Amino acid sequence: MAESLDVLVVAPHPDDAELGMGGAILKMLDAGLEVGILDLTSGEPTPHGSLEIRAAETEAATRVLGVPWRDNLGLPNRSLEATLENRRQLAEVFRLTRPQHIYAPYWVDAHPDHLAATELVDAARFWSKLSKTDMRGEPWHPKRIYNYYCVHLKMAANPAFVLDISDVWPQKRAAIECYHSQFIQGREHLQPSFIEQLEVEAAYWGKTIGVRYGEPFTSREPIGLQQLSQLI
């Protein structure tokens, strides 16, 4: 297991990290940060996928992103719950990988797995700092949790900040296209295509900050800046 990550992205299913913050992952890696992805479930079954297909697609997308560490907690897809045992397993990952920052799904969603994932992250962050426990690893408390948008609601997001991903959009798109069984197969009739819709969405967020493409993020806690020059 990886040690001392700068950032750990927690995703309910393989493909959520790419959809919600593939651009941010690429930019953090370009900046020299140690970034890992933890998928909580296999994401299967799906209409056109299988365990083998999804695993191969995830491996391909991980190569496109260039993420050096990715793991899967093996929790049940479609019935993910914020149980004490699942909280313990996730807290142990936090204690062993020791991330400074954690990224989790936005806390409002129609998908029960996404809601459970965010609840698990919040609770496991607290548990990971506990002493006098038989959990693996040493006590650790990640500094911050940020939330990315990968939601199943037709909602108007109100993010805390938008990241310029214009320079890495082609690579993010390529990573998403690796999930052929999820976003291309069976969707050939859609006009615009699913991928084209994602590009329109990214262009919308880019427009809000005066760039070509963007990704929105938020946080339950205030976001601090050391210099106002960090604002664009």
Write the layout of secondary structure elements.
Blueprint: E1 7-11, H1 16-30, E2 35-41, H2 51-65, E3 69-75, H3 84-97, E4 101-105, H4 112-127, E5 144-148, E6 161-164, H5 169-177, H6 180-183, H7 194-208, E7 214-218
Parallel strand pairs: 1-2, 1-4, 2-3, 4-5
Antiparallel strand pairs: 5-7, 6-7
Helix pairs in contact: 1-5, 2-5, 3-4
Question: Can you describe what's shown?
Answer:
By secondary structure, the protein is an alpha/beta fold. The protein has a single domain, classed as 3-Layer(aba) Sandwich (Rossmann fold), CATH 3.40.50.10320. The chain is 38% helix and 16% strand. Strands 3-2-1-4-5-7-6 form a seven-stranded mixed beta sheet, with helices on both faces. Helix 2 packs antiparallel against helix 5 (169-177) and helix 3 (84-97) crosses helix 4 (112-127). It starts with 6 loop residues before the first strand and ends in a 14-residue tail after the last strand. The mean pLDDT is 96.
At CATH level 3, the topology is Rossmann fold
Overall 3D shape: globular
Number of strands: 7
Instruction: Write down the secondary-structure element order.
Output: EHEHEHEHEEHHHE
Q: Work out the helicity level.
A: 25-40%
User: In the CATH hierarchy, what is the architecture at level 2?
Assistant: 3-Layer(aba) Sandwich
- Regarding CATH, which class? Alpha Beta
CATH superfamily: LmbE-like
The largest sheet has its strands arranged as 3-2-1-4-5-7-6
Largest sheet, strands/sense/barrel: 7 strands, mixed
Calculate the terminal CA-CA distance, rounded to whole Å: 37 Å
How many separate helices?
7
Could you tell me the strand content as a percent range? 15-25%
Radius of gyration: 17 Å
Please mark out the parts with pLDDT under 50 across 5 or more consecutive residues, or reply none.
none
